[in-house]
């Protein structure tokens, strides 16, 4: 009896791993589950709840996850390439080294999310809400942030070629040590408060009016970053 009274409570979380291509997981509640290393290519997760779910290295390539709740989820190393993530919620989520290439995140919420080292090549993040998000070290070449809200967002040391920030709110954002190559800031607001320390640019970039950034020196022997 004494042993039972002094026993330690053990937390338990269900798991739903394995492989399930084209699965219908609409409006399923997977909050708090551990589905790491699972394979759900082209799954339909629309309206599903994955809040605080551990989904490291999961294959969500080509998935549909409109209005899906990924808040506080751990999605490090997951693949969301070509996925439809319209209005999905990633607030406070960890997306370290996640592949979001060619994904559609229009209207998505990524406030204070961590996307360090993520692949965001050609990703559409227009009209997204990513205040305080950290994109440092990510590849955002060809990404579209038009009309997004990026106050306080960090883009330090990102790879940035052909990226668009048209009509974007960038108050207190940071682009430290970034080579701004063919980057478009047309109509962006809050640009007078952006940290461009250590940044450089090229003649193709459309910089905020009145801003002067020194031209980038050629990178000898550097690998050319393709957008294809």
Fold topology:
Elements: H1 2-5, E1 159-161, E2 179-181, E3 200-201
Parallel strand pairs: 1-2, 2-3
Report on this structure.
The protein has 228 residues and is low in regular secondary structure. 2% of the residues lie in helices and 4% in strands. The protein is built from 1 helix and 3 strands. The chain has one helix at residues 2-5, and strands spanning 159-161, 179-181, 200-201. A 3-stranded parallel sheet has the order 1-2-3, with no helix packed on it. The longest helix has 4 residues, at 2-5.
Strand content: under 5%
How many DSSP helices?
A: 1
Cα separation of the termini: 67 Å
Mean pLDDT: 91
Structural class: little secondary structure
Number of strands: 3
**C-alpha-based Rg, rounded:** 20 Å
Provide a short characterization of the protein structure.
The chain is low in regular secondary structure. It is built from one helix and three strands, in the order αβββ. The longest helix has 4 residues, at 2-5.
List keywords for this structure.
disordered C terminus, three-stranded parallel sheet, little secondary structure, 228 residues, 2% helix
């Amino acid at each position: 009896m004494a042993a039972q009274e002094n026993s330690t409570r053990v937390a338990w979380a269900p798991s739903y791993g394995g492989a399930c291509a084209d699965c219908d997981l609409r409006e399923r509640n997977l909050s708090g589950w551990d589905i790491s290393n699972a394979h759900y290519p082209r799954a339909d997760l629309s309206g599903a709840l994955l809040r605080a779910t551990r989904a490291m290295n999961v294959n969500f390539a080509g998935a549909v996850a409109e209005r899906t709740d990924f808040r506080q989820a751990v999605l490090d190393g997951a693949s969301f390439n070509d996925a439809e993530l319209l209005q999905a919620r990633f607030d406070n989520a960890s997306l370290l080294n996640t592949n979001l290439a060619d994904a559609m995140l229009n209207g998505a919420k990524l406030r204070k999310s961590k996307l360090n080292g993520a692949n965001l090549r050609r990703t559409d993040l227009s009209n997204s809400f990513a205040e305080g998000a950290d994109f440092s070290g990510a590849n955002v070449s060809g990404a579209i942030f038009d009309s997004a809200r990026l106050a306080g967002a960090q883009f330090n040391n990102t790879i940035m070629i052909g990226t668009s920030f048209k009509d974007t709110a960038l108050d207190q954002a940071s682009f430290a040590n970034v080579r701004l190559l063919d980057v478009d800031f047309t109509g962006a607001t809050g640009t007078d408060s952006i940290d461009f320390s250590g940044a450089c640019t090229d003649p193709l970039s459309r910089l905020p009016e009145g801003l002067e950034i020194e031209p980038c020196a050629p990178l000898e022997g550097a690998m050319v970053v393709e957008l294809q």
